[in-house]
Every structure is written in C-alpha cells, then in structure tokens.
Amino acid sequence: MEVEELAANNAPLTINEQVIVMSGQETIRVLELEVAGPLPALGADGKGADAMASEEGVASPVLEPSRGGEGTPGPEGTPTQEGAGAAMAAPVELPSPVVQAVTPVALTSALMTPAQAALPITVQAGTQFLTPDSLAAVMTGMMTPGAAATQPFLIPLSMAGQMAGQQSLAVFTFPTATMATLPGLTAVTPAGGVLKLPFTGLQAATVLNAVPPQLHAASPQTVLQSNNPAASPQKPAETQVSVATVQAAGISINPAVISAASLGAQPQFISSLATTPVFTSGIAGIPGITSQIITNAQGQVIGTLPFLLNPAASLGAGGGSPATLPAQTLQVQTVSPQLLVNAQGQIIATIGGTAAQPALLHSVAQTQPPAKPTVQGAAAVTAVSVSQAPVIIAPQPPSLKTMAAISAAETPTVSQLVSSKPQGPALDDDGINLEEIREFAKNFKIRRLSLGLTQTQVGQALTATEGPAYSQSAICRFEKLDITPKSAQKLKPVLERWLAEAELWNQKGQQNLMEFVGGEPSKKRKRRTSFTPQAIESLNTYFEKNALPTGQEITDIAKQLNYDREVVRVWFCNRRQTLKNTSKLNVFQI
Amino acid sequence: MEVEELAANNAPLTINEQVIVMSGQETIRVLELEVAGPLPALGADGKGADAMASEEGVASPVLEPSRGGEGTPGPEGTPTQEGAGAAMAAPVELPSPVVQAVTPVALTSALMTPAQAALPITVQAGTQFLTPDSLAAVMTGMMTPGAAATQPFLIPLSMAGQMAGQQSLAVFTFPTATMATLPGLTAVTPAGGVLKLPFTGLQAATVLNAVPPQLHAASPQTVLQSNNPAASPQKPAETQVSVATVQAAGISINPAVISAASLGAQPQFISSLATTPVFTSGIAGIPGITSQIITNAQGQVIGTLPFLLNPAASLGAGGGSPATLPAQTLQVQTVSPQLLVNAQGQIIATIGGTAAQPALLHSVAQTQPPAKPTVQGAAAVTAVSVSQAPVIIAPQPPSLKTMAAISAAETPTVSQLVSSKPQGPALDDDGINLEEIREFAKNFKIRRLSLGLTQTQVGQALTATEGPAYSQSAICRFEKLDITPKSAQKLKPVLERWLAEAELWNQKGQQNLMEFVGGEPSKKRKRRTSFTPQAIESLNTYFEKNALPTGQEITDIAKQLNYDREVVRVWFCNRRQTLKNTSKLNVFQI
DNA sequence: AGCATAAATAATAA
DNA sequence: TTATTATTTATGCT
User: Fold this and answer.
1) How far apart are CA A482 and CA B136, in angstroms?
2) Counting one residue from A and one from B, how many pairs have CB atoms under 8 Å apart?
3) What stretch or stretches form a coiled coil here (chains A, B) (predicted)?
4) Per residue in B415-459, pLDDT tens?
C-alpha cells in the first residue's frame, strides 16, 4: 500500500494493520478501518449482501439491522464527542449496495497456513459491517482445512457500537500463515498486505495489496460442522449479525472469538456486549468463536488476544461527515514486527503495528473526557493523517530481508532457514489438524487457569449446558490430549465456545463468571481443620485396622468423633498418602 | 520525530518504536534501530562506552561500516536491494570512537515509575552495541531505586548476530512507568520519547525527544550485586559485548531478561545464545535480568514478553553502505496502540507503536509536569504529536478495591496493604511499591506455571542456590502475598532472578530446566499406586511383547504379579487406550 | 520460618 | 464416568 497513494485519496478512512505472528503457526493480522463520521443506518435486513457475489468469492453475507440501539457509549468516555454527537457526520456513501461502514472496524486474521498466507485475501465489496447502533454481532464461517484456495468464506464479525452510532469496532479473525513456514516475518508484514477493503469509494486506500482474486465463492464450511457434526452447525445467513465476506485461498480458519471492550469504558461496554442477546448467543452458538490467544512458555495459551476495544470516539464528534472531509487522509502504516518470545525462547508472536489509529480509537475510548486535551474532531484527525502519511515507513526490515531471500536464492537468509523446517499444516489421517488441537489444548489450560477455573468447574458447567460427558476427567484428558484426535476434534469447539463465553462473563466480573460457571460465587477454601490429639489418636486407631474405610464406615467415624464426614474422608486420604510416602522412603532406603 | 525530517536525513537508519503498556503499571518501550549496511567489527573490548558522554547525550558513538547495505526500503518495495547484496555499503562515519552500530537494535523499556516515565532518558553517544559478529552479549546496570535522577546507568543489552555479521539485534529494557499512575496511556507513549540515539551522524533522526541530559555517569549497579552477592557479579566493562549507556533520571529498573531468537532460524539462534558463555553468565549472574511479562486475566503474568528476535538477514546482502546511500530514508513509525484484553476484560497491554503518543501529551496536560514533553526533539516529533494527541487514552482502572481494614496491630501483609490502597503508585511507609510487588507476585505464579514448576521445586531450587529460607510455604505465601511488604521486597529480586534464569534454561530445553531446577532430569510421573513399580514394569514388559493378551495370558500375568485378574485385564485396556491416544498425538506434534 | 498436614486439584484405575 | 490416588497448594501452629 502506497502511503502517498492512500494519502492522496483523502478518504475519511483510516486503515490500521497490525500483524501478529503467533508462535508455531498462527498469524494474526489485524486490520482496522476507521471511518470518520457517522455511519449510515443499516438496511432493514442484511441480506443485501446477497447481491454481492461473484466468482471472486463473493458471498451473500447478510447484514441484519442491529437492534437495541443500546450501543452504550463509552463509559465516561466520550463526553465531548457525545456532546458533539449532535453534529453527526454525513453518512459515507458507498457504492456497494448493502455495505455499511463502521468506525472503526478491525479485522483480525489468524491461523492461516503458510501457503495460505501467500494467498490474497480480499474483502469483497458489499461486505457488511455492523452499524454502530448494533451492540455486537458475530458471524462465523470458515473453509475446511483442505478447502481450495478459491473458496470465499465468512469470517466471524463482531461489532461494538455506541448509542450515537458514530463509532464502533468490528473484529473478525481469519487464518494467516504459520510463521515457521513463512519465508520470514516479512511474508506476513503489512507491507505485503493482502486485504482489500470493501469500501468501493475508498478502494485506493483500502487496497493494501492488490491481488487478483483467485478464488470463488463457496459455501462456507465451519470447522465445527466438518469435524464436529454434533456441534450446532451455524448458518451464517441465519444469524442476525452482519457478515463480512472475504475471499481467501485455501484458508482453514480456526474459530476465533470476538469480543469487544472499550478502552476506558471497558466495563460498560463489555457489559452491554455480554447482555446483548445477539452477541451472547453468537458466542455460545457459534462453535468457531473464540478469542485469539498468545502462546506461552509451554505452547499454552497465555492469554486471549485480539479483542477489540474501542468505544466510539471523538471522531464522530469532531467533524463533518467523512465524505465531506476530503482533508482527512487515509492512513496506512506498516510496522516492523516486534517479536514476543516465550519462556522457551520460541517466538510467541510478532507484533507489528500500524499506525495512526491509536489515536482515534483511543480518543474515543478515553475515559478522560476532558476533551480537547488532545485535538480531536475532524481537524485533529486530519492533521494526524497528514503528518503520519509521510511517516509511513518502509516496510520493516524483516520484510525486506525476507523479500530478498525469497527472490534471490543466493544469500542464505531467514527464509531459507525457515523453509528448511517442515511446513504445511499437519493433518492426520482423518484430516484433523493435530497441531491445531495441540495448540488449543495448551491454550485452553492456560486460559482456564487464567480464569481461575478448575477442570472440575469446567466439567460441571459443561455438563450443565451441554449435557453429560464433560467430567473433570474428560477435561483433564483433553488438556493432556490423552484422547483420540477424533474425540479431541469433537470436544474442541465445545470447549472453545464455552471458554470464550466464560471469559466474556468474567469480563463482567468475577462474580458473573462464577455464576456462569457453577453457581456459588466465590467459594472459599475450607478452613483447615485442627484435629484434637484425641481425635488423631482415634483416627489412627481406625486407620490401623482399616486404611480404606467404606463410605459408611467413614460416616460412622465422623459421627463418633463429631467431625464433618468430608473432613474424615480427606483425613484418610491424606493418611494413606502419608503412609505410602513414608513406606516408600523406607523402601528406598532399604 | 518528524517523518519528513527523518527522511530528509537520509540516514541509513530506521527507527522503530513500539510501546507496550502493560496492565497495571509497566510500560515497555521498544525502540529498534536499524542501520543499513554492514557493521564494523567490535573493538577489542566494549569499554569504549565509557567514553561516552556529553550531557546532550552526544557521544562518540562508533559506527562501524555496515556491510550488506541492506537499508532496505519498504517491504516489498525493496526486493531489489537484497539482491544487490554484493555491493556493500561504505561504512558509516561516526565521530565517536568506539561505538558500533548494529542492525537492528532494539531497546525495550519497562517498569519505570510514572515519575520516571516523564524523565528523559538519553542514550549516550559512544554507546556501544554488539556487532553482528557477536552472538550475544548482556550488560546490565541499573540505578538503585532511590538513585538520583542524574545517574546514568547501563542497561542490559543483548545482541544477536549472524555469522555474516551483517545484522543483529540488541535489546535492552529499562523501566518506563506504571500505567496506573500515569495520567493515561498517553503518558507512556512514544510521543514523549525519551531516547536519544547515540549515533551522531543520525542525530536528527534518532532524537525522539530532545531532552537535556540531566544525569551523569555513575558506576552501574546491578541488582544482582545488591541483592544477591552470591551471584556472579558482572562487570560490564569486562564483558566482551558492547554496552549501551543510558542516562536516566531516577530510574529504578526492574530486572529484565533479555533473550534472543532468530525468526526463522530460531532454534539455531537460541542455541547459540544459550551456549554463549557471555550471554549465559550474564543472565545467570545478573540479578535484574528477567523477561518482561504480560499480565493476564488475573493480573498474573501471561508470558514473558520482550525478547529479541532477530536473525540476521538479507539486509546485509543488499546494499551500499549507509553513508553512501543517502537515498535510504530514515524511517520512523508511530503505531496506534493495540489493546490486548485479558480474560477479565481488562487491558493487558497496549501494543502500539510508538511515537507520539497521546500519552505524552496527556501526561503533560494532566499529571506530568515535565513541560514540553509533547513536542520534543526535532520537528519530527511535532507532527506526530499533533495528530495523535487526541488519542490519549485514559488509564486503566487498576484495582479499585479499597478494602479495608488492615487492623493495625500487626504488620500488615502486602495483600492487605495493596487492597487498602485505592490508587496511585502504592508506596508503603517504607517506600516499597506494593503495586509492583503485587503485580510481580501474579506474574511470578503464571510464569512458574508456564514453566511447569511447582512451588516446591522453586523452593528447593532456591534453597539450594540461595540457602535456606525458601520453602514451598515461603513461595506459596509470596504468591499469595501473605507476607509483609518488607519480606516481599526482599524476596522479589531473588525470585525474579531465579525465574528468569529458569526460563533461560528452559529455552535450552525442558531437560535443562529440570536439571537447573532440581537435579533429576525428567522425573517421570509416578504411576498410580494401585500397582507397585515392579508390577508396572512387568506389565509393560508384557505389554511390549503383546498388547492384547488372551484371557489365559491375562490370568497368568495376574497370577504372577499377584494382582486380581480383572485388574490386569483393565490395565491392558487402559494401556492400549493410552498408547493409542498418545501415538496419535505424537504424530501430530511432529 | 517452616514443618506437618489439611484441602484442593489433577490424573488415572476401574 | 466415577472413585480414588497422586500432586500441589495453603495454612494452623508455635
């Protein structure tokens, strides 16, 4: 994407791209589109998207009219803009029929195979996004792992909007490429952008990488569906949320959760999301939805990654309608990738950034109302754009290196080294992506622990919502991958979805999470029992006679000693343990 | 940094700054300097840095002639240059004597107190960096927490280079500011850049924020030395690696681990680092060194963050010497922060690029007194500042619990104190940063778990290396902050150092970690006790010969091992199942 | 300051 | 899946 070119466009759109290469094999590409000014109201129904289409992977995304204009504004956030709300910018005129522009829109891609990474991904015109008025929407569609490169797919899309409807953020993820298989980071750098924005009017600006679409639309196939028939198959078209259609070549997408949070006013925002039926159901119902995660030291997920943020912002407040503000420049930045190495020295992710946007998003998010501290509104934005455009810098060095290496076989480079590594998604005999499952299992554990949940809690909660077959043991085995790939494949989407929802509730508060999970909030650790010497003596006497009393015996003993039955049971457990350890030592010594 | 200005410079240097605001209170500022062209060989010793000096931070950096004129232009843009590799760029002429330029150089800052954040940090001229030829080097020096603002300090520096010596990456971290205490994210943003690059020739470009140096060189003091006399004290001067000197005002640095990994060739790179005596010792010996972490859902560290990466690359191949390539522009990018939301919906970190961030503006306006923070240094900053200012974000709401009541009678524990303090950098009566400790405790736990270590293992390992007083209980209580601030303050650096080292070993392999931790490598999990070890062994022997014994065989085995026939039968069932699952998984892992 | 062991959580035989 | 064991964490006690 040429900076100058974009700048020249003067489109009231800001494109921020950020590429995060996950350890192992995932790459998350985040593209944020910010449109200054108010968004047009959504059509009665999102079907309009159907119109689009074409062998270019045009699908028929449906954009539903968002309901509940509860898009709550940022918390304290955007006082000014809100106030400014009065002066709404004129709607952006888009050539495509149904497309609605949102501000901002973030696209996150992840889990793309190397080969796929090289393929062009185009967001078709006609792609619809949620309007700011919509609280959130989620759509999911994905190619099967082995899908042809020509298949278009639907990607999860989540939008967060504000009352004013001025701004909102949509995020959807789609597979990118495995870092290892990439020629180098460069392969994934922004410079090599593969996204084509859907806004016809902004095309020049939006086209990061002009690549001829090579695919054709195909019916999206969710992983869940293919792998987990049992899982509730989702039909994108059926969802109420808006859908974005993207063309990708042979992309196999991993489910990604989409969540949103306002910067400063997170709480509120999140709450609204959580309480929004659409969103909630989307999360729960859509198998593939889950949050992106960062792998940690053991390849386990360190945390959920890409969520959106953004609350509406000052943009709307500031100024005139985007269309009317030619001055606003389109900004695109490429950032050199920043690597995040995990405990094992492995690259966890590469964070590359993009530019310009922070400001916008933030400003909005900002809780700090004190308005003008910074310069907001149209003028401010403009200035930024201008100044930044020039800034656009050359693609990061990494990219360069890669490029070079790739093009010329001469100098041994990173790419070569990389290439030496076996690549390609590991698919087992059944076409199951084992690597993907392994990764998820790790992530699941870390995420579970991050939420402070036990295997038991997860199992019980799932049993309650999904029916039996989710015992603590099952969870344990899944985490240990002590199950067959087939089973794992079946369990994965369920766990993914559940965990994502749990995280959502957790965002609303620990209390809410506990409520969601199991019920009793904040179950405290039982107070350590102190046995009286007499009790200890009695217990030991019983133990000598029978180290493994039956339930009835335990009950009797507890009753006689006047201790809680559970306490007595545990005492025996620990006593046996102690004896065992002791005996072992003896054995050892011997 | 004005883009134009930079560009005008035509310096073969690329500056990439990325700011990652950690949840709670840490900000990581990453500055990458890339110098196109080959690097000069390192001097005999890295002492050259001593020469550095002027209060302006201008020193006599030595810039080696970079080889491989890789100043690569934009990503895709400059494929050609790579090919040009043959033509080496002429060495860059630098006034300073000893400084060596490296490509790229990354600086990471973290854990700076708010007040400190506002202070200018200048990289003195004469700062030395490792040459590409060096595999890795680490230097650490830091101010004591209470050190005056005028003391310069050495920062950990790690370099990774390639054989060719063309490129390498150096990373060092230094404290930035506590997010909570900052006026907003903006406070920590790049806009308020405080780094002054050491390259005289590139000054215009490198000066993100022109701030008059306020400090003077002082002898670096490693945390290790102060906290862990036992640790092998490192003398920066003694190391062969290059050192970077930075001036900072009253900065108290947290130990940061520096590690490096090549992108594509990670394995190799890491290995080299690990095997490099200098590096290893540096890590082990330097107390302060630890990796940066990302806080997760529970405020716990999600993962270690900033490490370097970088493999040398094609850059070298490409081009002319930097000096001779005026065409190469200096690139500076500002990135809008990307928020990473954790499981609790809290912002884990803001990944943004750099510059200009709103933060500064904000900070200035709000809390930060330090005047002109916003526009500093040369003009470049100006432009960016202007545009981004608006973005300034509000600080996150840290823990708001203001609990209560610490009954005074006894010495309150950290957890009690922390909860009682509403906000701001919580410094207890002894000037201990409780918030920082709280954060660390959380991080420690996550990092420990990420390494798969138990409290017991940590305790035992520490007892072995640090002497008694590190029981499992102690570790447990530290994590739970069920100790007095004084104790925590004392324990923190030890744990920090140890964990960082453990992570380092872990990078070399799980085996190495176990060796480091406890001794017995890979102690296999004990089999369920129902069977004696001998029995298990026998069973496995039988299993190897025949995984599916006949009824008669089972009977015989049970008889011989003196176990119930049914027990043996079930054992075989489970054994087969396990093998099945495991084998499939293994296939995947490969 | 830390042992001893209760309580909690994960893993595994049945 | 359930029951029990294996491990780990937390805490009473002095």
Assistant:
1) 40
2) 513
3) none
4) 777 766 655 555 666 677 788 888 888 888 878 887 888 898 899
